[in-house]
Write a structure and sequence with these properties.
- This protein has about 290 residues and is α/β, with parallel strands linked by helices.
- It folds into two domains: about 5-230, Rossmann fold, CATH 3.40.50; about 240-280, no CATH class.
- Helix content is about 35%, strand content about 25%.
- It has a six-stranded mixed β-sheet with strand order 6-7-8-3-9-10, sandwiched between helices. A four-stranded antiparallel β-sheet has the order 2-1-4-5, with helices on one face.
- It is globular.
- The structure holds adenosine-5'-triphosphate.
Length: about 290
C-alpha cells in the first residue's frame, strides 16, 4: 500500500447533475508542498473540503495518513490543520482566547497548551498582539492567526485554501515565507490558489529542503488538466514563448527552448507586435484551455 500522505482515487462531487469535481485521482507525498492552481469555480475549494472531511465525496475514496475521510473522519481531523478562505476565527475574542479555545477542543493539556500557544503565536509574529481582540487585527494578521491555530494540535498535513486572497503584496510575501518555512521543517501541505506567482514561488522549485519533489496540479472544470513539476510542465509545453499580437488578442507559439524562440524572432522581417519570453504556468493554462486564469 502507498505511504502517500493524501490519496484521492477517482473522486467526484456532484451537485445535482453537475460534477464540480470530476473523477480526480492524486497522491501527495509526505513533505511535499502541492499547489492546486485553477480559476474561480474550478473545484479547488470543494476538493479541499472533501479531503478535510467537511463535505462527502459523491464517488471515489480519499485517504489521509492512511485513514478514510468518510469512515474515519475523527482520525483524519487529528492529522490535519485547515485554513479556509472564509475567516473562521472569532473576532469578538482575543488572539489568545481563539488559540485557547482550539487547544481545549483538541484536548491539549496544560501546561503544554500554554507553551504551544506561545510558540505558534511567536512563529507567526503575533506574540505581542495576544491580548488584542481579533476584530482589531489586519487581514494579514487574522490569516496568520488562522495558521497558528491550525498548527496548534501538531497536524501532519496543512491545508490552505487561497491563503493570501485579498491581501496586499507585502503581507502576501510575509505569509509565503511562513508557509515555505513550515514546509522546510517537513510539513506536508496542499494549497489552492488562482495566483500564478504564488504557486510558482511556493511549489515551483522542483524539490523542497526535504528532498521531496514539489508539484503543481492545474485544475479546470473539476478536472486535473495538468500535473507535475513546473520544470516538467515547461519542458513538455515549451520553455520559450513567442507572442504575436493579432488585433485585440495574442497568438502564442511555444518553442522547446528560449534559444529557439529567440532565433525564430530574429529571423522575422517585421517584428512589430511580437515578443519573446520564457513560458510560465499561465501560458500553459491558456494553451490547455484557451482562456486566462482569471
Ligand atoms: N454547496 C454547493 N452547492 C452547489 N454548487 C456548489 C456548492 N459548492 C460549490 N458549488 C459550485 O461548485 C463549483 C466549484 O466551486 P469551488 O468553490 O470548489 O471552486 P474553486 O475552484 O475553489 O473556486 P473559488 O476560488 O471561487 O472558490 C462552482 O461552480 C460552485 O458554484
Amino acid at each position: 500500500m502507498s505511504d502517500a500522505a493524501v490519496i484521492l482515487q477517482n473522486v467526484s462531487k456532484l451537485y445535482g447533475d453537475a460534477a464540480v469535481v470530476d473523477e480526480l485521482s492524486l497522491e501527495i507525498q509526505p513533505g511535499e508542498i502541492f499547489g492546486l492552481l485553477g480559476p474561480n469555480g474550478a473545484g479547488k475549494s470543494t476538493t479541499i473540503r472533501m479531503i478535510t472531511t467537511l463535505t462527502k465525496p459523491s464517488q471515489g475514496s480519499i485517504r489521509v495518513s492512511g485513514y478514510d475521510v468518510v469512515r474515519q473522519p475523527f482520525l483524519v481531523k487529528r492529522q490535519i490543520g485547515v485554513v479556509l478562505q472564509q475567516m473562521s476565527v472569532d473576532i469578538d475574542l482575543t488572539v489568545w482566547e481563539n488559540m485557547e479555545f482550539h487547544g481545549r477542543m483538541h484536548h491539549i493539556p496544560n501546561p503544554q497548551r500554554k507553551k504551544d500557544i506561545e510558540r505558534w503565536l511567536e512563529y507567526v509574529e503575533l506574540g505581542d498582539r495576544r491580548d488584542d481582540l481579533v476584530k482589531t487585527l489586519s487581514g494579514g494578521m487574522k490569516r496568520r492567526l488562522q495558521i497558528a491555530r491550525a498548527l496548534l494540535h501538531e497536524p501532519r498535513i496543512l491545508f490552505l485554501d487561497e491563503p493570501t486572497v485579498g491581501l496586499d503584496p507585502q503581507t502576501r510575501r510575509r505569509l509565503w515565507e511562513i508557509i515555505k518555512g513550515l514546509n522546510q521543517q517537513g510539513m506536508t501541505m496542499l494549497l489552492t490558489t488562482h495566483y500564478m506567482e504564488e504557486v510558482e514561488y511556493l511549489c515551483g522549485s522542483s524539490f523542497s529542503n526535504n528532498g521531496v519533489t514539489n508539484r503543481i496540479g492545474i485544475m479546470d472544470s473539476g478536472k486535473l488538466i495538468e500535473l507535475g513539476t513546473l520544470e516538467a510542465m515547461r519542458e513538455k509545453h515549451g520553455k520559450g514563448l513567442l507572442m504575436k499580437q493579432m488585433g485585440d488578442r495574442w497568438d502564442y507559439h511555444f518553442f522547446p527552448t528560449m534559444d529557439e524562440a529567440d532565433a525564430f524572432f530574429e529571423k522575422q522581417p517585421n517584428k512589430a507586435g511580437m515578443m519573446v519570453r520564457p513560458s510560465n504556468l499561465e501560458d500553459i493554462f491558456v494553451e490547455l484551455t484557451g482562456r486566462n486564469l482569471d
